Each structure stands twice: as C-alpha cells, then as structure tokens.
Amino acid sequence: MSVTREEAGQVIVDLVHDPDITRPADRPTRTSPVARLTNHLLDQRRANGAIPGYCPGRPLETALLHSLLVKTGLHPERQKELARYLSHHPISPIPTDLTILNPGNSPRKQFLFSTLRHLISGTPLPAAPADIPYRGHPRWTELLLAALHHLHNGNAEEHDFIVTRLSENRLPVFEGHVLNHLVALHALHRHQPRHPLLRRGIADALAARRPDGGIPFTYDLDIFATAAAGLALHAAGLPRHELAPLARYLIAHQQPNGGWSYTEGARQTDADDTTYAVQFLRLLDPVGYADHIHAGREQLRALQNDDGGIPTFLHGEPSDITMTAATLPLLDPFGRPARAALTFILEHQQRDGTFERCWSLSEAHAIFRTVHALEGCAFPDPRIRGVVALARARLTATQNSDGGWGQIPGEPSDPTSTAHSLLALPVAGPAHRRGRAYLVARQRDDGSVPSRPDLAGPRPLLYECPILASIYALWAVGRPNHHMRVAPFSAEEGS
Q1: Which of 194, 278, 393, 410 gives 20 to 30 Å between its CA and that of 125?
Q2: pLDDT reading at 495 higher than 70
Q3: What span, in angstroms and rounded, lies between the C-alpha atoms of 424 and 237?
Q4: Which domain holds residue 487?
C-alpha cells in the first residue's frame, strides 16, 4: 500500500466512523484502513469464536528439540529438517548479562539460561543454586525448575514430580509451554533415557512444528488474542452481534477459579488474560455476563499483595506495575484494595516517566495501561495528574521523525510500539495525528499491520504472535475518541 503521511492522516480523520465496519461478510474489497483492519481480524475468526493467536517457530525451542533428538537417536529425518531450519534461523545468544531483568528474578534466570546453553551447545553444566525451590510458582515454572534441578542432581522426588505433571497434562505439551516441556524431557532423558513418556513427549513436541519448520515457544495465545481483539473491535464500533461469538468463546474457557489462562486447556490463570476478558465482557453486556464478570473480579482480588500491587500469576509473587494498572479499574472504586493499588502505581513511576516493562518489550505498553487506569480512577488523588503528564511527556519527547515510536528511545519505529503510544496520548494532539499516519502507511493490502516481535518469554527472549500488531493498531486508530478505557465499577454493579 503506497500512501503519503499526509494522505494517511487525513483518511484516518475522515473515516473513523466508516459504515463499512458493520457490513456483513460480503464487505467490499476497497474500504477504509480502519474497516480493512476490522475485516482482517474478523476473517481470522474461527467457528468457535476465537481470534487465533498463532505463534511461529523460534530457534531456541527448535535447537532444544534437535539436541534431544540427536541424544536419543530418534526421528533422523526430523533431525535433518530441524537442522535445516536452524541453518536459516540462527539461535539468538542466550544472555549472560541479566541487568535488564527484574533483579529479584536474576538468580533464577541465570540458572535457566546457563542450563539452556549447556543443553544446546554442551557448555559446562553450572552448579544448581540451593535457594531456588521449584514449588510455589506458576504451574509451568514449577515443571521447569523441577527439571532444571533434576538435570543437576537426579533427585527422585523431582523425577516423580516431572512424571506426574507430564502424565496429568490436558494438552500435548504441558500447559502449552513448549520450552518448559522440552527442558523436562531433557531431564527425563538424562536420568531415565528409556522412560515411556520420553518418546510420547518428543512426538508431541514435533507435532507443534510450524510450517516454517521451527518449534514455537508456546502453542498459541488464543484466549489473550480473542479478549484483546474483542476490546479493539468494540472500540472500532463493531455491533454486539458480531462480538458475541468472541464472548461465548471466552466464557467457555473461564477457569473454575474465575480467571482465564492464555490458551485453551492450560490451567494456570493470570491477571493479564483475566483483566482483558472481564473488561470485554463488561463492555459488551454487563448484565448478561454479570456472573462471569464477578468471578473474574474475585480472582483478581485474590491476587493482590500486601503492597497493593497485583502479580501476574500468584498471590505472593512480586507485584507487577502493568498488571496492577490493568486490574485497578476492575476493583471497587472507593474500596481499600483500589486505594492500595493506586498507591502502588503512583509510587512506582520512574523519573523519566516510564514504568517497569512487563511481557511487552515496548516501554509504551506499560505507559498506556497505566495512563488508562489512572484516568478512570475515582480517587481524587492530586498526584494522578502529574504522573499522567510525566508519562505523556516521555512519549512526545521520544517520538521518531517518521511519526512512530520504537520499543525504547533511539530504536527504529515499529507499529506495535506506536499503537501502544497512541493509546496513551490525547487524540487531538499533533503527536497522535502523526502516529496514526505512521500506522496507516504501514498497513498491508490484506488489512493487517506487521510489526517486529514485541513479546518476551522468558524475559528478555523474544517470541512472536503476529496478529497482536493488527489488534493494537485497530485499538489505536479505530475510534480515536473511544479507546479501551474502562470506567471503574459503580456501587450499583455490586462488589
């Protein structure tokens, strides 16, 4: 698509209320950028209502599986195919400098990364730290840490834990996490190379192979993508009957504890998916989905730590600024939990206006989630205005000359970071107009918007879910006066 920056900016201004968005499946092929983005997302929708969060192959998991196949001697033809993929997709260096990570996670990440280097390239196996227990973590992290310890010491208790978790799994790959599944298989092979779970686990990992020949980090982000797409499509003005299939899909995959996971079949719920799902259901039908909304809010309340913050997965884990911001609008507006969450947010802004990054490597992601939470906050705290102003000043000062933003200042612009930035900025300003023009100019003929990888798992290792770039782009430009801001709950809606 060839369009000047000025033309792109004007077409967005003119067509934010484009009636093509609400037309049925026979929509014309020549439509506005907003309508084509909407159509692109709807074209991806499956019969069950899901917007698929497909993740392509990644060299790290591909190398881990290739190494395991070489050790076992299994599937020689697949060994060649994986080696061929790796010859075209060299594995990125596994970091040794962990200063960019949360300091509290550094010992655990060092333990993981040094062991991964050993499994892939045969570097010396490091000593296992004694102060990192494998219990008390998210389900996939428990499996990963048990496998890492078992690789080092062959403990029978850890072995039994690994076997039990792999045997009880509802998905071919444990909780959908291919990386942790493969590390567990390496641990089994080291101490019991003929265990029956090994062959089955390898076959399951091979079944996850993508058309590009690589093995992904995780199966998919279907639930996350569906909830996020629902919010973006709602902001773009899509009618309720077209959004209802997405809601039905989400309801079908709500967990017994009230929360949501990132993919079908995984049991571990998290604040990110739960907040997106609750926000979408509430926007679509707060009365009809009241029970599901209430259950989701209860799960989020149960996560809150004593410091007022919300962790991603489990109560007692370190609080996360982005998860706290995502949860704040869903807490009782004048209750003690909301006040504590607000205080946590206000006290964790950095001097340059940013906040600690979460799963997204774009610093604007944490900014937009926080700005939205603060702008809808019911507490008359005088600090809110200053925090929002400082965050927005950071964005206006770091906008690139092409109108976009990079993941951090000084990096080339990318659509995902630009969309995150636009979601935090007032729609009437020149920075917003230039950013919208940047996004529109990068739209493909099929309506999608491509971008660089933005996700990290485990941080800071990149992986991709390409459809998220189009989702966030639609969020940012679909209805400039109707972003995803969610008003706080009123007393009438119940506690």
Answers
A1: 194
A2: no
A3: 20
A4: 5-53+220-493
